[in-house]
Amino acid sequence: MSGGHGHSAPPLLTALANAGVRVTEPRRAVAALVTAQDGHFTTAELVTAARAEHPGLGRATIFRALDLFTLLGLVERVDLPDGGHAWVACETAHHHHAICTRCGRSTEVDDHGLAEVLAEVAGRSGFRVTTHRLEVFGTCASCVAASA
Amino acid sequence: MSGGHGHSAPPLLTALANAGVRVTEPRRAVAALVTAQDGHFTTAELVTAARAEHPGLGRATIFRALDLFTLLGLVERVDLPDGGHAWVACETAHHHHAICTRCGRSTEVDDHGLAEVLAEVAGRSGFRVTTHRLEVFGTCASCVAASA
DNA sequence: GGTCCATCTGAGACACGGTATCAACTAGAC
DNA sequence: GTCTAGTTGATACCGTGTCTCAGATGGACC
Lengths: 148, 148
What we know:
2 copies of one chain form a homodimer.
Chain A: H1 11-19, H2 25-36, H3 43-53, H4 59-71, E1 75-79, E2 85-89, E3 96-100, E4 106-109, H5 114-125, E5 128-139, H6 141-147
Parallel strand pairs in A: 3-5
Antiparallel strand pairs in A: 1-2, 3-4
Chain A binds a DNA duplex through α2 and α4.
């Protein structure tokens, strides 16, 4: 997948251009890799995929691109239950992820209701909440259906 | 703090004995270090503290003790916003932590209300929740008061 | 108290994830 | 086409956590 450039640019690249950073070949490559991922992916997985599909791509560049994408809100880092890190591509401003431990796909979960929970925490204890993180792990609808 | 053994054993050690594992000198040392921590602490901090107070204590032993304590539910690992890990001593079964980014202390937050949020997620999307993690960061009541 | 064995320990090598450095390259403005 | 700042890849490096293994030690049993 290195020749055809007739396809429409993925939103990731558009976002890069809009952010005023250079749209370089390596960044295109990382964007393509990220877009190709189905569900969450670890840095190691991305590096492996890169080695296969974009041999010249440096490891550091992948990390840098991921950092950049994070800064731009195009991907988000999630913390796995085992302490490791993974990434998911996303677009909306603030949300959470429900990660399927079977297929690896992640669903976005909105804040509905959580805000109240946090407000109550604040009210009761006087704790002033700056930021929070909610991660949900389990089995997604299709995997539940598949195993039923 | 290496001589007096007239003080009552901290709950950590009692728990060790109850769990049927050996109550060894190194484990006593790590337990003391953990107990001495005020709020959350990173492994690095614990290692540094150990170097000062228990020079003979090996790094691997600290990690192992921390693992053991986690298994026994005596400490819990939290994921910091920057991707790093920290630990908090705790006793209750399932709860979450509200971590003060100013003083480092952590308050336990119960599930009150969160269960409903998760139930709604499940109901709407068919996602079957196995486990979840909520971490709240902000400023605790006393730090808010202190800075007012 | 003494003996014994499984458990535990410490040292150090190792694997891994992520960062810093730096010369060379290139996107894109002019 | 030219130029420059931003970007890149290679590589060295650092911190965190794990593994191995010979030696030490807790505590059970005598």
